[in-house]
Amino acid sequence: MSTMIRHVFTAVLFSLFLALILVGLTLLIFPLDDWSLILKKEIGNVSFLLLVIGISITLGTILGLSIGRYWKQRLHQIEHRLDEMVKGQKFTTGDVTYKELGNIEMRMEQLQEKLRNQTEYSQRLATERANEREQSLQEIVVQERNRLARELHDSVSQQLFAASMMMSAINESNPPEHDSIKKQMQMVENMIHQSQLEMRALLLHLRPAALKGKSLQKGVEELLIEMTQKVPMEIDWKIEEFRADKGVEDQLFRILQESMSNTLRHAEAVTFHVMLIERDETVILRTVDNGKGFDMENSRTGSYGLQNMRERAYEVGGFFKVISVPNEGTQLEVKVPNLRKEVEPND
Questions:
Q1: Do residues 240 and 299 touch, judged by C-beta distance below 8 A?
Q2: Given pLDDT bands bounded at 50, 70 and 90, which one contains residue 301?
Q3: Nearest-CA neighbor of 119 among 93, 92, 94, 90?
Q4: 334 — phi, psi (to 5°)?
Q5: How many other C-beta atoms are found inside a 10 Å radius of the C-beta of residue 305?
Q6: What dihedral angle (degrees, nearest 10) is formed by the CA atoms of 44, 47, 50, 51?
Q7: By the 8 A CB rule, do 142 and 208 touch?
Q8: Residue closest to 256 by CA, chosen among 227, 298, 297
Q9: Which of 96, 142, 149, 193 is the most exposed, having the fewest neighbouring CB atoms within 10 Å of its CB?
Q10: pLDDT value of residue 96
Q11: In 3D, which of 15, 18, 21 has the Cα closest to residue 59?
Q12: Measuring CA to CA, which residue among 282, 263, 266, 203 is closest to residue 274?
């Protein structure tokens, strides 16, 4: 039963009960010689009892609607503020007309402050872990990864590129006469092209994920410029300047790498757009491609890459959302509260 109906029903019953009490008291004070006159009594050609009942129901309905609307508005305010808390938005100041819910609002403010403190603590831990990872990263591991990436780029990647060029030249200048062979040659060319994309995605994973002293904006821009030069895909971006904790920047950079790797390997996209901005003390990272997309119902729990990115966003108190439609593309969005405290330099 909804709030409105419940209050209307209660008010109507209360009005009928009050009317019966008033009529009963009136008859006790002014008793009738013949009680049957109550049934015969009419006011304006309307039975007295029906008039009393009708007026009671009408007044009760009006009163119930007023009270129901009154509390529905206040419950809506509470629901709106709870929604703000769930989304990590800044808590709005309560309306002065809703002071009867002041205790609830005060508890909600305390809860949001507690969640904010927990988010700050999580981000501080993420920042400390990021700094520890950078400090404890052994140089030999970095050198080995870079060496492996260079060898793959100089050998396998170059050979795949040469094979792709040769197959393309054969298919264009001297195509086979038989349709079956021509189709198979085209399939080989497509497989080589897909292998190139897989290799580029692998090289993207092999590169060190940490920003290594760079700002998030600088690292993202360098990554996108490099991918523009190596990948046959139209890549554009919108990046704004802001400051965030090291742990937040590190996780957002890794999420972008994972998203781009997934796009290269699975999306078959032609365009890739990246947006990195800050709005209302919230850092927003959004990637959009026009690839083949996927069925979100079937891939909700089965994708390791999506789960990995979601966990990285949750680690810094963020909000992760993916929207994908088959043959329409995929949009990924991460929102992280930016709780960085500006520190004044000491003289």
A1: no
A2: very low
A3: 90
A4: -125, 130
A5: 13
A6: 30
A7: yes
A8: 227
A9: 96
A10: 46
A11: 15
A12: 263
Is the alpha carbon torsion for 221, 227, 228, 234 positive or negative? negative
Beta bridge partners of 321: 333
* Better-predicted residue by pLDDT, 143 or 225: 225
Is the confidence at residue 346, as pLDDT, over 50? no
Q: What separation in angstroms does the CA of 145 have from each of 3, 203, 264, 343?
A: 63, 10, 21, 37
211-347 fold? Heat Shock Protein 90 (3.30.565)
- Of 307 and 192, which is predicted with more confidence? 307
Beta strand segments in 146-252, E = 234-239
CA 314 to chain centre: 11
Q: Is the pLDDT of residue 108 over 50?
A: yes
Angle of CA points 36, 42, 47, to nearest 5°:
80
Tokens of 140: 């030999």
Pairing mode, strands 271-279 and 282-289: antiparallel
How many CB atoms sit inside 10 A of residue 242's CB? 16
Contact call for residues 216 and 316 (beta carbons, < 8 A) = no
pLDDT at 243 over 80: yes
Average pLDDT score over residue span 100-112: 73
Q: Tell me: pLDDT of 298 over 90.
A: no
What's the mean pLDDT in 81-92? 70
As a whole number of angstroms, the distance between CA 149 and CA 159 comes to 15
Mean of pLDDT values over 61-90? 76
